[in-house]
Amino acid sequence: MPQVTYIEHDGTEHRIALEEGLSVMRGAVDNGVPGIDADCGGECACATCHVYVDEAWLAKTGAPGEQEASMLSFAATAQPNSRLSCQITMTPALDGLVVRLPEAQH
Amino acid sequence: MSEQQPRIVILGAGHAGGSAAAFLRQYGWKGGITLVGEEPVAPYQRPPLSKAWLKGEATAESLALRPARFYAQQAIELRLGTRVAAVDRAAKRVLLPDGSALGYDRLILALGARPRELPLPGAQLRGVLALRNIADADAVQAALRPGARLAVIGGGYIGLEAAASARALGAEAVVIEREERVLARVAGRALSAFLEDAHRARGVTVLTGAAVASIEGEGGAARAVRLADGTRIACDAVLVGIGAVPNTELAQAAGLDCAGGVVVDLAARTSDPDIYAIGDCTHRPLPLYGRSGRLESVPNAIEQAKQAAADLCGRPPPLPEVPWFWSDQFDLRLQMAGLAFTAQESVVRGSTDGPGFAVFHLDAEHRVLAVEAVNAPADFMAGRILAAKQARIPPAVLGDAARPLKDLTA
């Protein structure tokens, strides 16, 4: 299974094997990685699964969709490499993906 | 440090209870956690039940709050299919119907709410359904064959979402609302009017100001809804969505303070220092609005789960939040933030005829209290931030869709 590395704001790393087709949000929630709230359960409705995609992976994860970009534009800690992790679906091409978590989701 | 680790028992394995168990581990709780639920399944997400689940677009796995292995990995003991008879506060134990008891050091009540029953003749007929849990949703889904006629009593979120799903499945839907508009208790007039039009445009019959007199049956099964004015609405099934009643009986019997909900503070503490309560069953402070009340929503369940877990783990409480809600109906994504208790003025940003719009609700001093957004996620996010800041914004500025809200939220 492809793997994702989640790096908490304090530097703690979590390397998680994630079934293809699941979202990067789901991988964090299902394995108790702190820092991703995912209040809405993956509906792109809440912007509480915000992550920073490692620069090396930006081309492969692609750009946020229109709705996602709108939500992200108001996140206090948004950066150019911000994504909502519920909108990144795991594929073999993303094996090794690295995402960093913001200090807070609000 | 005592020799035995303290045990937290959580009563209720819904979104609140399941989240509390997860947050307790995330926040470092080392003692035992036992999650007791009446339903035979581990915690799952209820919001998709009236939407993706009804339409066959969700699976038990996608619905699950956490995968089955999570509970063993996190040392969370699940006691499912278990009804609780009573809480014995003096002995600090929970009594089960089989006479056994479960001791606790701290107790979290996550008892939820149950659908309000229709107090009218015919309510017990076969085919009169409610929608709260998976079993309910499966019964509704079975009734939604193409061409079937669903009568929905109550124009609230559950009723409107179910009506939208019914249409998607090729069934007919009639929404019968007693008040003069749908969502009368929970939305502003502009949003109500927009949704009534949207539902009608997509083939739902929406009746407002329509009082139900009875449900009529044939051979024990519901066949029609009879209105007070005599109108008969033929149907194959009836969905009753007229609100929820908080499950406070256990707390009341145990002598905890209740006021239409178990009374809690901002750390989710009840009147017993060893007992917390979270989610739909609580009556909680709403500090941004200077009052208290009961919120029925997933975000609230999660927020109070955080409050309780933080307090139990000795962490600072989460900052007071802006309550928020969402709903999906047809191609419409509704996102609401804030509570419009003292609203004096409403401003529509964008056009209700356009691709998306938002309604901002302001108090007399033009403080942003709440926002209701339809296919307008940026306005929702902006409104949530402005409501948190209780920002004062001239209505003309909010209403000018050409003017970005980003500058106002900084």
- Using DSSP, what is the number of strands of chain A? 5
Straight-line distance between termini of chain A? 32 Å
Regions with little confidence, pLDDT below 50 for 5+ residues of chain A: none
CATH topology of chain A: Ubiquitin-like (UB roll)
Strand order of the largest sheet of chain B: 3-2-1-7-19
Quickly name the level 1 CATH class of the largest domain in chain B: Alpha Beta
Mean pLDDT of chain B: 96
Count of DSSP strands of chain B: 26
Strand order in the sheet with the most strands of chain A: 2-1-5-3-4
The multimeric state of the shown protein is: heterodimer
Strand fraction of chain A equals 15-25%
Q: Globular, elongated, flat, extended or rod-shaped: what is the shape of chain A?
A: globular
Assign the structural class of chain A, choosing from mainly alpha, mainly beta, alpha/beta, alpha+beta, or little secondary structure: alpha+beta
What would you note in describing this structure?
Chain A: Residues 2-105 form the 2Fe-2S ferredoxin-type domain. Chain A: Keywords: 2Fe-2S, Iron, Iron-sulfur, Metal-binding. The complex is a heterodimer of chains A (106) and B (410). Chain A is α+β, with helices and mostly antiparallel strands and 106 residues long. Chain A has one domain: Roll (Ubiquitin-like (UB roll)), CATH 3.10.20.30. Chain A is 17% helix and 20% strand. Chain A is built from three helices and five strands. Chain A has helices at residues 24-30, 58-61, 66-72; strands at 3-7, 13-17, 50-53, 82-84, 97-100. The longest helix of chain A has 7 residues, at 24-30. The radius of gyration of chain A is 12 Å and the shape is globular. In chain A, 42% of the residues are buried. The model of chain A has no long low-confidence stretch (mean pLDDT 94). The model of chain B has no long low-confidence stretch (mean pLDDT 96). In chain B, α1 runs parallel beside α8 (298-312). Chain B has three domains: 7-114 and 245-312, FAD/NAD(P)-binding domain; 117-242, 3-Layer(bba) Sandwich (FAD/NAD(P)-binding domain); 331-409, Enolase-like, domain 1. Chain B is of the alpha/beta class. In chain B, a hairpin with a 4-residue loop joins β4 and β5.
